[in-house]
Design brief:
- The protein contains three helices and 20 strands.
- With 365 residues, the chain is mainly β.
- The protein has a single domain, classed as Porin, CATH 2.40.160.10.
- It has a 16-stranded antiparallel barrel with strand order 1-2-3-4-5-6-7-8-9-10-11-12-13-16-17-20. Strands 14-15 form a two-stranded antiparallel ribbon. It has a two-stranded antiparallel ribbon with strand order 18-19.
């Protein structure tokens, strides 16, 4: 890790030196981000265990580091690239064990006017919520987002000319994979359309064989759709959901096709430029456990995760690039899923409280 850090700093210094010799059209940018937290959960675990279904602030009754991130981007108008490294509990809870410190590492070329071909390690193109607190209204993410892919490796072809419409086409190793687990590849798409200044839509998908090499063939189809609505400078809202199917995956019929559904609604109200409050309602149903996991219920049977949750958060943002947030969430799993430890007693309910603050910067060289 020490050698890796030295190498990264050397790259940054090289970029600074290179920028002096580049034309004005070349854009080199350094970015950084830190987010720290304290969290408390009614689900009591060992001090080194991470809370299940939690992306942000996953450790109970502890002060922690959600993320420390530094990155660099390079763009000449014909060639571009991004390299971002990360450290913290978000990476511990969500990222690949083999490449835990690498958030993004890719290079791209403009193959035609406003059409780019990029290749390498990317963050996902799927989802209404970002795994980084700075990029969304709430710091925590819903259960559906926790089970969406966070990262992927492969190539993407993107059209970026229009301010109203964007399209991407992806060929990747698989669902939440840097290293493929079989000899097949997955394909995906992303389309965004800005109707006007108030409303925009986004649709993304991923399709491919996700079962490991040598096991039965399981084909997964995943779709995400959401709409952003900002009727005025006080109110912002997101309404969206996921639907996924996978062949040969039903618990009571191994040859049947399993179905997962997820829905969420988010609304943010700004009292002033610095103070706001946000509420989120979510519903997750993966009764066959092919996206989440297979659990043992209180009757001794098996089933996937079914849960509903409500989150309420308050934010103080002293600047556009900093924030202090506090959030509380209540999660209700299916009544037969006594999966939480409440003072030594099994429960299907978990309460949580987090407070976190973050700062991020971007510096063009």
């Amino acid at each position: 890790m020490k050698i890796f850090n030295i190498a990264f700093y050397a790259v940054c210094l090289l970029l600074v030196d290179q920028s002096k010799a580049q034309s004005d059209s070349t854009k080199i940018e350094l970015t950084g981000y830190i987010d720290t937290y304290y969290a408390s959960y009614s689900n009591k675990l060992a001090s080194d265990e991470l809370q299940p279904y939690i992306t942000v602030a996953p450790r109970d009754n502890q002060f922690g580091l959600n993320i420390a991130e530094i990155g660099a981007t390079y763009n000449t108008g014909e060639v571009r690239g991004t390299f971002v490294i990360q450290y913290g509990d978000i990476a511990e809870a969500t990222w690949s064990d083999r490449f835990k410190t690498i958030q993004e590492a890719w290079v791209g070329m403009e193959v035609a006017e406003d059409i780019w071909l990029d290749g390498g390690f990317f963050t996902t193109h799927i989802g209404a919520e970002s795994f980084l607190p700075k990029n969304h209204y709430l710091s925590s993410t819903d259960i559906g987002t926790f089970y969406e892919p966070f990262y992927q490796s492969g190539v993407r072809l993107s059209y970026e000319k229009s301010e109203k419409f964007e399209a991407q086409f992806h060929l990747v190793s698989g669902y939440n994979l840097f290293i493929d687990n079989n000899d097949a590849k997955s394909i995906g798409m992303l389309f965004t359309y800005k109707v006007n200044e108030q409303i925009s839509f986004s649709y993304s998908n991923l399709y491919g064989r996700e079962s490991p090499e040598g096991s039965g063939k399981q084909i997964r189809s995943y779709h995400n759709l959401f709409v952003n609505w900002e009727p005025n400078n006080k109110v912002s809202a997101v309404l969206g959901g996921d639907i996924s199917t996978q062949t040969n995956s039903k618990l009571n019929d191994p040859t049947g096709t399993a179905l997962m559904l997820n829905a969420l609604g988010i609304i943010k109200y700004r009292f002033t430029d610095k103070y706001s409050t946000t509420g989120r309602l979510e519903f997750f149903n993966d009764e066959d456990g092919f996206i989440s996991e297979i659990l043992v219920n209180r009757n001794g049977g098996t089933q996937g995760l079914i849960a509903t949750a409500f989150t309420l958060g308050v934010e103080y943002a002293p600047t556009h690039q900093s924030y202090l947030r506090t959030e509380t969430r209540w999660t209700w799993a299916d009544k037969d899923l006594q999966i939480f430890n409440k003072g030594g007693n099994a429960s299907n309910v978990r309460a949580e409280f987090i407070i976190n603050m973050g700062f991020y910067f971007n510096k063009r060289l």
